[in-house]
Write a structure and sequence with these properties.
The protein is an alpha+beta fold. The protein is built from 9 helices and 8 strands.
Length: 284
């Protein structure tokens, strides 16, 4: 009786093992690569999968997009600048059969290819291109990595360079360069403003030269602007032309007419009259 019960338990246990080995569930985002006695038998899923126990074996492959982080790599640019660059690679399994059969570990293989490609590609570009044309470098990295991983059934969607770490000396040099560039732009803008102002002032001077009253109004306006500041003493020169109009209209007293030349006695007529007096004193 006891031996029969034990035999029944053994049979039940064996049946459970067979059922568990035969029934597999594949998620919607997965595919199952089936091998029958070591040979490829097809790709199955998603859903409930029935396998021949102890004859067929299934390897699940995730089809979701994988974000693979590439650690910081020391790269030497074409202009001999050492930088540290890290990036991230987005890829997914396009062909589960190739991802299982043609490569041992497609994740690690893609990670290694991304590292080597990052160093070799950035070495062909200058530092300015790495900083300003990052989009083009990302597209180039994506194309190269995708060409290498295509035989493995891997599709690389996008490669993004996350951070570029520069040496401290290079950062200071770039800061000085940016400061010098800002100073140059400021001087150019100031010179352009002075040039435009000089043209306008030249036209204004021409208008004031043609109309003397405009100059007087300008001086009066300047006095009005200066009068608002009462915390300082200002010496303001006034041109005489400003009072010309007042001097010309307020002089009502007529000037004396100059004497005619006939009214002035000639010095030669006075000399003979004094001569007899001198003779009389001598005779006495």
């Amino acid at each position: 009786m006891l031996s029969g019960f034990l035999f029944f338990l053994v049979i039940l246990f064996f049946v459970l093992i067979v059922i568990l080995a035969a029934i597999k569930i594949v998620q919607e985002y997965e595919r199952g690569v089936v091998f029958r006695l070591g040979r490829f038998a097809g790709v199955r899923g998603p859903g409930l999968i029935l396998l021949i126990p102890f004859i067929e074996r299934m390897v699940k492959v995730d089809l979701r997009v994988v974000a693979l982080d590439i650690p910081a790599q020391e790269c030497i640019t074409r202009d001999n600048v050492t930088v540290k660059v890290n990036a991230v690679v987005y890829f997914f399994v396009l062909d589960p059969e190739k991802a299982v059969i043609h490569v041992e570990d497609y994740r690690r293989a893609t990670w290694q290819v991304a590292q080597t490609t990052l160093r070799s590609t950035l070495g062909q570009h200058e530092l300015d291109d790495l900083l300003s044309r990052r989009e083009r470098i990302n597209m180039e990295l994506q194309r190269i990595i995708d060409e290498v991983t295509e035989p493995w059934g891997i599709k690389v969607n996008m490669v993004e360079v996350k951070d570029v770490e520069l040496p401290a000396t290079m950062q200071r040099a770039m800061a000085r360069q940016a400061e010098a560039e800002r100073d140059r732009r400021a001087k150019v803008i100031s010179a352009e403003g002075d040039y435009a102002a000089s043209q306008q002032l030249s036209k204004a001077a021409q208008v004031m030269y043609e109309s003397p009253g405009a100059m007087q109004l300008r001086y009066l306006q300047t006095l009005t602007e200066i009068a608002t500041e009462q915390n300082s003493t200002i010496i303001f020169p006034l041109p005489l032309d400003l009072f010309r109009a007042f001097l010309g209209s307020g002089d009502a007293t007529p000037r004396a007419a100059p004497a005619s030349p006939a009214a002035v006695p000639a010095p030669e007529a006075a000399l003979p009259a004094e001569a007899p007096a001198a003779d009389d004193s001598a005779a006495a």
